[in-house]
Amino acid sequence: MAGVEQAADFAGDPDHIERLWTPHRMAYINGENKPKTADEGKECPFCRAPRRSDEDGLVVHRGETCYVVLNLYPYSPGHLLVCPYRHVADFTELTDDEMVEIGRLTRQAMTTIRTTSQAQGFNLGMNQGAVAGAGIAAHLHQHVVPRYQGDSNFLPIVGQTRALPVLLADTRRLLADNWVDDGGVLPRA
To answer: Could you give the residue numbers annotated as active site?
Structure first.
């Protein structure tokens, strides 16, 4: 099997466990290009993405105060992030307009994913702070993770690897081309 090897134990004997090597993930694990504080916006991938072309930045949709980008390290195909353009770390620091647009773009992302890939469920969430699991704690982002019946198998648990059947560029193009824009904002109380 290509990319799968058997490893030897310390004595040099094979341990009969197959391994799927994913060295490209080391950049993420080692924190490459991750800002440490909210003041490091110039190095932030969520500040860089909207300055690039949609294709190069994996931007799926642009709003007024926030945008939607494909996750470079997705949990499942179509895993999107809704980010404010402004470099802000904490939900309590959002403006009212940013907060409303994150909600609206999350709703549109769910509708778009449902219509393009028939997702059967979603995990939505924000991890506030590194201790809470935020991979990039310095720039707030809402995860929109589509879920499918049987999408989780042994690979992530045993192999700490995800099998993604679609290239990121193809996923970005599919979602961008089929974006469902509801044309309005959520009503204010």
So the answer is: 141
Q: How far apart are CA 98 and CA 93, in angstroms?
A: 10
CA–CA distance, 30 with 157 (Å, rounded to integer): 20
Residue by residue, pLDDT tens for the chain (189 residues) are 444 444 444 445 555 555 544 555 555 555 555 555 445 445 799 999 999 999 999 999 999 999 999 998 888 889 999 999 999 999 999 999 999 999 999 999 999 999 999 899 999 999 998 888 888 899 999 999 999 887 665 444 444 445 555 678 888 998 999 999 876 444 444
Domain layout of the chain by residue ranges: 4-177
pTM as predicted: 0.71
Q: How far apart are CA 81 and CA 140, in angstroms?
A: 10
Q: Other C-beta atoms within 10 Å of 116: how many?
A: 17
One CATH from 3.40.190.10, 3.30.428.10, 1.25.40.10, 3.40.47.10 for 4-177: 3.30.428.10
